[in-house]
Amino acid sequence: MKFIHIADIHLGAKPERDKEWAKERERQSWQAFKAVIDKVKEEQVQLLLIAGDLFHGQPLVRDLKEVNYQFSRIPQTQVALIAGNRDYLTPTSCYNMFRWEDNVHFLKSEEIEYIELEGLDTRVYGMSHWSKEIAKPRYQDVQAKEGDYTNILLAHGGEKKPIPHIPIYSDDFARSRFDYVAFGHLHEPRQIVQDKVVMAGALLPVDCDDIGEHGYFQGEIKDHACHVKFVPLHYCEYESLAFMANPELAHGGLRECVESRICAAPAYQKFVISLSGYCDTPIDTEELKSMDRVVKVFNNCQADYDFVQLKRQYDQQILGRYIRALEEMPQNKVTEKALYYGVEALMAE
User: What are the residues whose beta carbons fall under 8 Å from the beta carbon of 186, sequence distance 6 or more?
Assistant: First the structure.
């Protein structure tokens, strides 16, 4: 049985509203979702698994109709989906009364249930979210029932920190009868247990914290043996660029360095810039932020102070005494930071 596993599509998300490409980014989640449907149709995939957060928030009826239309394009493919913590169910949710295509199976109970897929000899287990946060583990003790079926668990969670959200551990499913566990929620794609427990990651990055490649997993289960591969989608990708600043680079060279790196990168990539090191003049981060394809700039540079000159210049003043006092203390990371931060504060007065 051939399947595709996606999660965290976040239809309706509006990333980077302050950027000129905001509208394009809003459209890309729908484009990527339709591209997956095209792939399902092209490759005659038998099962499409959607592990939560199909929508970025509560969907409207028109949103559900558009998604349902896409499902109608693949009538020979069974679709199993659950609601996640972003599009969780409520008593008034449009999910409740919506009538899906016959090939669509929405596991909307807040308790684990399963469906049997005729013709595939497959049972898909899962539950939907009825609240935004679920701190307790819900999947640790879930077991597939007896019977000669391919067993799949559709799940949404796995976060341990900072706020636990259905935490999971790699050995939770090591001895279970599930042939495949399809997770969603965390946006970084990864195989928790090779070819068995997989976090699909977000179909596309939702914001600039989602660094690196995104896409979906495609796999096949035969005689209870599963194999999956990651398929990247290149509508948008965020990359981190790190630069070590120095006095020479700060004087006009930094912008040229950034431009050079960006020009050499694929057109679908956007960038988060991190600056560190020492420089003797402030770096104009606003100028960097205004550059094409730059989303965010983190400036962790420290001033390149000439402490000998400052001590001479401010010998009998607070600044000079402060520098001498810090230099007489045992030198470590704490005193080094205290020296720089203290001088910076006193120089700003």
Answer: 158, 159, 199, 201
